[in-house]
Specification:
The protein is mostly beta strands. It has 3 domains: 224 residues, Sandwich (Jelly Rolls); 78 residues, SH3 type barrels (Roll); 86 residues, SH3 type barrels, CATH 2.30.30. It has 3 helices and 34 strands.
């Protein structure tokens, strides 16, 4: 089960710790529960006002009543939906849950916007449409093409056994339309349901075939978590198990099967962090669980960074309980440890009342608990540091630092600076069974 640990927030300003008047984590947990109850009747292709503040920009000549928790609107009725950043004074933190049909034949894509997040609806579709799952049967695979003809430009390759969602067809059903291209009927298992697909013109554009919110523009806050145990702003997406969907996010084509966190940076880049499943991007590149990429534009070209470890430390506090499927977050050291250059006086830059810093210059093992009888999570070379949030007396009688939930290091292997003596002394977690 996913849960948020109960901690309190302290804001550090000019070396002084100012306690917030609001118990931040208890508040965010209440927001999550409010959203769960308010949106329990949400149906396909609808958005729900989970918690204040959520605003929608309606389509021209459309009037919407969307002003309080539990209100529901059709996805096709608005141009954008925005959730508000955390505000301790007003005790608000925006959250909205959406069920998006996308190109999924059965079920829907679940979307959860929270914090300072705006989702622009780039699809002009005014209603839902039929999608039919097809399977590639050509043993050598096939090519998805930009137009429904054999010599058209290749968009990407598909492989024997691939299951795709067809969302349109030519009038004679000789070619079927996937979100990002056309596929010949000769390379797929022919299904009688294909006749239900909408008839499209050969030159139809993406906007003509994307369902509401299948193509979006996204903007979020970043590094704006309201407290140490609450999430930064973002958008969560989750497909049904084993089902993929084609999306367009900030003009980049994506194929998702799993759970994805999306955020944006101040300079307009998009961050994709895969929490489980698989993500295809950049015409066939694959992102694996626990990996993250950024992309942005240089002129009209989209540039992608190489995959890196996702921010596991912050992902632990995401409101995953509002998604339909539970899963275990993949472990990584993203946001848990950070590199530094030994021999440069790094620790001397911290004062006695700075947050605790533990650094090491030798190879160490990070373990799941405070003691050598706990399993090793990861071996790490020297030249890294972490910010412990607690300490414990280990099973070996020594002091251990907790760098994050389930990530411990022996204090004897580190040099420390800052207010480490003020860290709470906690009980060691249970040893794994067996």
């Amino acid at each position: 089960m996913h849960r948020l640990a109960i901690l309190f927030l302290f804001l550090v300003t000019s070396g002084s710790a100012l306690a917030q008047s609001l118990d931040c984590v208890a508040f965010t947990q209440n927001v999550i529960e409010t959203t769960r109850e308010a949106c329990s009747t949400l149906e396909q292709n609808q958005a729900c006002y989970g918690n204040a503040i959520v605003e929608v920009q309606p389509r021209p000549n459309v009037r919407l009543d969307f002003s309080e928790s539990g209100d529901i609107v059709s996805l096709a009725a608005f141009e954008s939906i925005s959730t508000a950043a955390f505000d301790a004074d007003d005790e608000t933190w925006g959250m909205s849950l959406m069920n998006i049909r996308s190109d999924i034949a059965e079920g829907h894509l679940t979307a959860l916007a929270f914090g300072q997040t705006t989702v622009q609806n780039n699809s002009e579709a005014s209603a839902d449409f039929v999608a039919v799952e097809i399977t590639v049967t050509e043993p050598t695979g096939a090519n998805l093409r930009a137009e429904p003809k054999a010599d058209a430009a290749i968009v990407r390759g598909v492989y024997s056994g691939d299951r795709l969602q067809a969302i349109g067809r030519l009038e004679d059903t000789s070619w079927v339309r996937i979100a990002d291209g056309w596929l010949s009927i000769d390379v797929i298992r022919n299904a009688p349901e294909l006749s239900q697909l909408q008839v499209l013109e050969p030159d139809s554009q993406i906007a003509d075939v994307f369902a509401p919110l299948q193509s979006i523009g996204l903007r979020t806050g970043l590094d704006d978590a309201p407290c140490a145990a609450a999430p930064e702003s973002g958008l969560l997406l989750q497909t049904p198990v084993g089902v993929s969907t084609n999306l367009e996010v900030n003009s980049a084509g994506l194929t998702l099967s799993g759970t994805l966190l999306l955020q944006t940076t101040a300079d307009g880049k998009t961050i994709l962090s895969l929490l489980e499943g698989e993500l295809l991007y950049n015409n066939g590149y694959r992102l694996k669980p626990a990996e993250s990429i950024e992309y942005g534009f240089q002129g009209s070209t989209i540039l992608y960074t190489p995959p890196v470890e996702y921010d596991y430390a912050n992902a632990r506090y995401l409101p995953l309980v509002l998604l339909p499927r539970e899963f275990e977050l993949p472990f990584s050291l993203g946001g848990v440890i950070f590199p530094f250059t030994p021999g440069t006086g790094f620790l001397q830059t911290f004062t006695a009342d700075s947050p605790c810093v533990a650094a090491w210059t030798v190879d160490v093992n990070l373990r799941s608990g405070p003691g050598t009888n706990y399993p090793i999570r990861r071996g790490v070379t020297g030249g890294y540091y972490g910010n412990p949030d607690a300490r414990a007396i280990g099973s070996d009688g020594a002091v251990w630092w907790r760098l994050g939930e389930g990530v411990w290091i022996a204090a004897d292997n580190t040099a420390a600076a800052g207010a480490c003596g003020n860290l709470p002394l906690v009980s060691p977690p249970p040893l794994p069974a067996g």
